Amino acid sequence: MQSVRNQRLLAGGLIFVSVVWYWLVMNFVEVTPGTEGPDSRTFPLFFGALLGFFALLLWVQSFFLKAPAVQAEKKSKHDVACEVQAVFFMIASLTVYAVLLETVGFILGTLATLILILGAVLGVRCLKKISLITLGLSAGTYLIFKQVLGVYLPLGSLINIGM
Amino acid sequence: MPEFLTAAAALADPSVIVALLAGSLIGIVFGAIPGLTYTMALSMVLPLSFGISPNAAICLLISTYVGGLTGGSLTACLIGIPGTPSAAATVVDGYALVRRGQAGLSLGLVIVASAFGSLLSLSIMIFAVDLVAKLAIQFGPVELFALVLFGMSLICGLSEGSLIKGLIAGTIGLMAMTIGVDDIEGTARLNFDLTPLLQGINLVVALVGLFSVPQLIRTLTEYRQKKVKEYQLLDVKTQMPRWKLIKQNIGLMSYSSVLGSLIGAIPGTGGPIAAFVAYDQAKRMSKNKAQFGKGAPEGVLAPEAANNAVAGGAIIPLLSLGIPGDAATAVILSGLLIHGVAPGPTLFTDSKSVVYLLYIAFFVATIIVMLMQGYGVKFFIRLLKIPPQFLMVGIMIMCVIGVFAIRNSFFDVYTMIIIGLLGYLMCLAKIPLTPIVLGLVLGPTLEKQFRTAMILNENDYTVFFTSPFALVLYALMLGFMGYQLYSDWKSTRAAASQSGANTPSSTAAS
């Protein structure tokens, strides 16, 4: 039954998105005066309405599904907790890395992020392993992007070393 | 001929050769490691391609694709786990050979069949692409609109079980592509005064977010759940099959390759279907049916030739019509567009040398992949021993730096993180991601052709029903959608009745 409920929740959420989208388009997309036929709003509005229509179909479909047919595989509490933690840690790691790149630049940012991920997220306790992976990956990325591809690597706005 | 020579001359550029070698290697590695996909490899190399010439970028993408298709068979043979779904049919007899102590021969068969399938599909591709493009060159805005609409209907085939969810995903892609400056009126749409959003959501940022971040989360989840597998790997030396065996099976490999190319050309199908159909056909045609499942060479040659031939087939609609058939070709299409190459009928008149370069890259990549697999088996085995969580960290760093490098913008990095999180939530809700890419890639053309046709015909909607070709495409589209709707309904009913039969009450009643 939980999956049927999930499907209805999903459909409801999508209908909400569709309504918000409609409101955004009507309030934030300007139309050039005197335009005849399809204008800047036509396609965004049409696609928003289409999303609402499909979401409605999804909601209607949930009434015709027999519960066992859509029953999802049950996950243990431990598995669910691990999944939530993984989502949190990955998004946090990516965000922290982006912020560090912006503030302290590529070299310090990459070294700090790698030490953080290996030590705190992956739980690696061997210092030799952490140093080896951190230095190897940082040097490898630097070589590929800076030396081989000639790409500009981020410079820190607060601290900037070695670039 | 001069265009062909221009394309061939590109191979003299060391960066093109390096791109071919790197792409093949990355493709094989991502294809071989269970859990990583070659679509992810393609989305990861896409930002890297910004720092190199367009020729090298095309070679990098094509070689990654070719390498990825073949790489999955390495693990299918060595550990009995397919690196990609396309290699699933190879496991049956490929791994049976390993258990019989013939791991080297199993790999040899994979290498020969893969190269054979790729090269034969390349010839089919060269012939068919030209033919389809010659037909499509006469299209105006109405036909192009109908064609793109038909391309969008392929979402149904990529819906992975739920047609409605596939359509929802496609619509989300179409909605996202409307953000940014409207090409026709020049007005800003939903950018909320954010300058980077004036150019819309960058396609590469969206691709990396959709295909890499959810995979990184999954790898971390498996690690935290302690479900990371350690593979028992053998020390193998590739043993090429004898000429007599190859000669005996040339007919089978040719048949499987043609089958693979045809299936590959139908958007929304792909490698797994081709491989299983070819395996089934090989079993039916074989005189030694009893040997199948116990290490029959035909059971490796047929699916391998077919799943590699899919690549050539899938590139036919991509090059000639600009319609991608799956996620991987959608990423390749995005890469080509970013480098100023617009696949479609005009590609053959505007930049024929690019088409030739693509053929040459495909050919050379096939040879490189064959040699790498033949001589580099020990290296790949060592690579498989690297714990996936450490690979994940490396991929994460590459994705962030790669996305930043596109426009030197941190806005893109944060956008990638948000899209990645949304992509993961969609995966949880079982909303397929490939239709989103299709919406993002085809959406702008759909809107542009529609509005151009309307402007040219004084806003008369009936113009869309005047072209016979467009009408045929609408009919095909409706037929295709109807068929998918019927299949979807049928499979839901079958699943419902099966689970109904398994409930305690029905068991007691029976």
Provide structural commentary.
The complex is a heterodimer of chains A (163) and B (510). Chain A has 163 residues and is mainly α. Chain A contains 4 helices and no strands. Chain A has helices at 2-28, 42-64, 77-121, 127-148. In chain A, helix 1 packs antiparallel against helix 2 and helix 3 packs across helix 4 (127-148). Chain A starts with a helix and ends in a 15-residue tail after the last helix. The model of chain A has no long low-confidence stretch (mean pLDDT 87). Chain B is mainly alpha-helical and 510 residues long. Chain B has helices at residues 2-9, 14-32, 38-48, 54-78, 88-99, 103-136, 141-153, 163-177, 203-211, 213-224, 243-248, 250-265, 271-285, 298-321, 327-338, 347-350, 352-375, 377-384, 388-407, 410-428, 434-456, 468-502, 504-509; strands at residues 180-181, 188-189. Chain B contains 23 helices and 2 strands. Chain B is globular, with a radius of gyration of 23 Å. In chain B, helix 2 (14-32) runs antiparallel to helix 3. Helix content of chain B is 73%, strand content 1%. Chain B has a two-stranded antiparallel sheet with strand order 1-2. The chains are: A mainly alpha (163), B mainly alpha (510). The interface between A and B is large, with 71 and 65 residues.
> How many individual β-strands of chain B?
2
Identify the overall geometry of chain B: globular
Structural class of chain A: mainly alpha
Structural class of chain B: mainly alpha
Strands of chain A, count: 0
Mean pLDDT of chain A: 87
Sheet with most strands of chain A = none
Quote the average pLDDT of chain B.
83
